[in-house]
Every structure is written in structure tokens, then in C-alpha cells.
Amino acid sequence: MGFWSRTFTWWDGDTWGTKLFTWMNGDKVGSDDRGNTYYKSKKGRRWVVYAGDNDGSRVPPGWALWLRGTIDGLPEDSLPPVRAWQQEPEANATGTMAAFRPDGALGGGKVRPASTGDYQPWTPEE
């Protein structure tokens, strides 16, 4: 990524301002398997530097709890082990082609089934 795009864009990771603030005030606490890095200041403020797309739905649940201050310790130390039936969380797909589209929706590719016959549309009296 070029110098100017890293200076002024916030949607592709951290900007120079975020880098400077993090360098001056942040202590690295950990990172997740998606490459996001988590920091904490001496005053207790917590933040994340995203790896790529700045989308909060890409923060794993344990780290989301840590960011909000719900748990004090790191997720791997404070949370119970992952159970066999638990699924990996998915990122929010709104606005993408992977988003849910019901039958009949634009871009859904399917036609809404006909009504069952118990529906009578309202028509104004003349």
C-alpha cells in the first residue's frame, strides 16, 4: 500500500495517526488467528488494530469481551475451552454476494412462491 493511501484511509487497517498513538500509548496484549492485534494503555483503554478490513464483526467473541472490559484477563486465560459443538463465528456478510436473500429478493435468483389463496388484496371502493 502506498504512503498516501496509508496516511488518509482508515478502512484498510491503521493509519499513521493510529500507528503513532499506538506506539506512544499502547502495550501489545495479544493477537488473534485473523491477524488482529490488541493493545491496552496504562490508563486502561483497550483497542484493536485490524489486519486489513476494519470490520468489528471480524473480532472473535473472546477478544470482543476483552475489548469491552467484560473480562479482565486475556480470552485464552479467562474463558472456558471451546466445546466440540461450537462453530467458528462468521463475519457479517451484509452488502456482499454472500448475504442472505430470501426468495423473490433482487439478486436472490429465485421466485417467491405464489400465495396460498387465503390472501385477498385490498381494493378501494369507488
TrEMBL record:
Region described as Disordered: spans on this chain: 98-126
Keywords for this protein: Ubiquinone
Any single GO CC term annotated in Swiss-Prot or TrEMBL for this entry: respiratory chain complex I
Top-level taxon: Bacteria
InterPro entries assigned: NDUFA12
Keyword GTP-binding: no
Gene Ontology biological process terms, A to Z: response to oxidative stress
The name this protein goes by in its record: NADH:ubiquinone oxidoreductase subunit NDUFA12
